[in-house]
Amino acid sequence: MPSLSRVVSRDALEKWLSLVGLALALELVLFKFLPDLANSLIQHDQSSLADFGEFETRYLVPGSVHHARFLGNHLLYGLARLIEGLYHSTDPRLHPLRVAAGILTPLYAWLGAFLVLRDRKQRFDWRCFMALYALLALIGQYVFYPSDMPSLALLSMALFCLLEERLWAALVLMLLTGLFRESAFHIVWFAVVWAGCSRTRARWERLVWPGVFAVAFAIEYVVVRRFFPGELSSAGGLVLDPKAWFLEGGFLSLTTICSLGLACLLTLAALLRVRDITASDWRRAFFTINCCAFPAWIIFYRMMAGNLSEFRMLFPVLMPGIYGIAYASLARGAGDRPQSGT
Fold first, then answer.
1. Alpha-carbon gap, residue 310 to 144, rounded angstroms
2. How many helices, marked H, and strands, marked E, lie in the chain?
3. How far apart are CA 324 and CA 270, in angstroms?
4. What is this structure's pTM?
5. Hey, where are the domains in the chain?
6. Per-residue pLDDT tens for 133-162?
7. Rg from Cα positions in the chain
8. Among 113, 103, 160, 117, which residue's Cα sits nearest to residue 134?
9. Nearest CA to 330 among 272, 275, 277, 279?
10. Residue 287 to residue 290: CA distance in whole angstroms
11. CA 223/CA 81 separation, integer angstroms
């Protein structure tokens, strides 16, 4: 009888263990730590994962900021209604909406790591990636929104494809991301940075592709809000008062300081680590520019009335740093190809 190592490689087994561990940790957050119930208790509110009516009001009624992020809402709601027909508990911790979240959230999280884990070119240190990606996903469960994990997953896949210069795939994934959340706009920015850093394509291609991404994003944004109307931001529009960016909305709260502090540390770590990538590799400049753009994105989020105490909001800004650390961990001292091992 063949040994287990012949059937399943050690590396593949470790990858599966990392995925299972991430899923179990997410289930603990949803069913044991229950951050949504704790937050509702403090705010004297009703958790959207414990009441269908509350979920419908918050996510399915036209006009709310969450309504335009429609696909994650409807997938979760539809699955919960299906579960309700098969099983229902009076325990709010086992409400069909939470059970549906417990099914979908790990699947989304796995999807975001899929391309890195199956990367046959071994450009990325998957262990570094999974450690940081899992940290991001778990801390992001500080609050639960149906659009967060699927948009993170698709943005991660789009970024992977862009780093591999599979531009059509990145474009399709950007459009899929836009069905869940406006963070698809970050992929337009990634395409712009790619065009400025890469020299593997003709100049006209590097000029055209960012425009294609931008136009596709704009068209999708308008169409989505035509059929799923929603506010531009939680404030209803742009916040243009600099005082409001830094002195209002809980910007100086302890949770905001901790969230931004952790994000800054990760960004600085990435900025230092990507220096190990050879200068001739365009990805070094790509990761560096994205890390340096961190402060500008923080101002942009405040202009959009973003609550920076919610770490989930920083997902798109931090993903290039995570990819940068994973890429640099396998980079050689010279040459464009990374090493095949750690």
1. 10
2. 16, 0
3. 6
4. 0.91
5. 14-328
6. 999 999 999 889 999 999 999 999 999 999
7. 21
8. 113
9. 277
10. 5
11. 27
